[in-house]
Amino acid sequence: MTTFDKNKLQITSVKSIPEEKIYEFFERVFPERVPGINKIWKWLNRVGYYDNETPYAIIYENKVVSFAGLIPFDVLFDKKKYRAAWYIDFATLPEFQKKGLGTLITKKWMEYADISLEITHNEFSGPILKKLGWTELFDSYQHFIMINPLFHQKFAKIPYFIRFIFNSFVKRYYTFFYYKNRIKKLNLEYKKHNSEKPLTLCELLKNSDDNVFPVRDFDYFEWRIYKSPDNDKYLLVVSEKFKIILKECNTKRVNYLDILYTEGLEDDNQLASIIANIACDYSKGRYAYIRFYTNKKQTSLTISKKLKTYLKQLGFMYYTADKELRKKLLNAGWNWQLIDNDFEKFEE
Length: 348
Hints:
- By secondary structure, the protein is an alpha+beta fold.
- The chain is built from 9 helices and 16 strands.
- The strands form 2 sheets. Strands 1, 2, 3, 4, 5, 6, 9, 15 and 16 form a 9-stranded mixed beta sheet that branches.
- Strand 10 (234-238) and strand 11 (243-250) form a beta hairpin.
- Helix 5 (160-181) runs antiparallel to helix 7 (268-282) and helix 7 packs across helix 8.
- The two termini are 31 Å apart.
- 33% of the residues are buried.
């Protein structure tokens, strides 16, 4: 690369960038996700939500050298609605790193939402966000409810018959707790959602003085479920008391089940029991595990205790320029699920 001239950098909305230049950038920074990411990035970033003004990229000599993805949505907190956004897919070309581009594009990104959010930051994005005044929390829990753990592709080098034998013992251990904690005589019905009908899972808009609730209204579910590239993989579990959205994930490496969304299961013991029922129902298949996410420490403790899950604690960060709002958020409760952020994995 010739001598770097910072004056040639241009931060711009991706709407003004030819798509082939964005694809060239993705091939460099996300090679394992190409070509799939080329098909889903517009949907994932909800590019039309802010009148096509987001996400952002940095151009240098007619080439995309940095990119900051953004999932926009609204939240309710302190009896007010705020504009929020998840920070995703932040990347810079290797030869342009350590030149301040990450800080530059992040500052631009932070101008758009009242509350900026991020989970699973890495060794590059984490220090940048902390330097810019983001607050980090650790009440962020991803659970793996084991079914057939040795069916994961990372164990593929072990001869199949040995894996099968060991898996049967491990499976027996976990299913003991699932059958012990399930709700007996409860027959869950798993239905493919019908994209020709309005989604009936529009959660009532909640409000609280001390809790942040994402607004999951009809428009949200229309984008998140109906227009998803994995539209055909979602299942609905609906009863008079609760509603659940599941996703059957069948990948080259592993088959697993995501509990993307639950509604009406505020009681932690009941939630753990319903998850146990789902685990029992899927124990006869070749699914390795079930994923579930929560911000609530007590919910996490209950599920861990009853279902003996493998727990992965994730870092969670947020930012707001509003000083009064920042003080209030220090003691706020957060209500994220797998359906939020970019937790969900797609066969890209």
